[in-house]
Specification:
By secondary structure, the protein is mostly beta strands. The chain contains no helices and 11 strands. A hairpin with a 6-residue loop joins strand 4 and strand 5.
Length: about 120
Amino acid sequence: QVQLVESGGGLVQAGGSLRLSCATSGRTFSNLSMGWFRQPPGKEREFVAAMSYGGSTTYYGDSVKGRFTISRDNAKNTVALQMNNLKPEDTAVYYCAAKILNVGLTGRRYDYWGQGTQVTVSS
């Protein structure tokens, strides 16, 4: 089993930056692919970013390309999402997710999910 805990959310003005982090436990972190998803108010959860368990491949949703960066630290069992040039439409609950298989990382079929952290971007 895998436990995921997100942190780093909060309120930021448009154009600002936030860095989310996700702490993992319960399974060898280096053997998990990791992803970030978000759910805006009243909308379905959408893909944001992902990284293969080897760290050699990354994926980003079209709306965040060039602004967000996913990274992982296998020694610390953490994954981070650096969010720059934030926009009001980035407002959502952000979820960290882990997947055993190293395929289909842009889809929503992940094996483990965190509880989420709120990110609010004001105009």
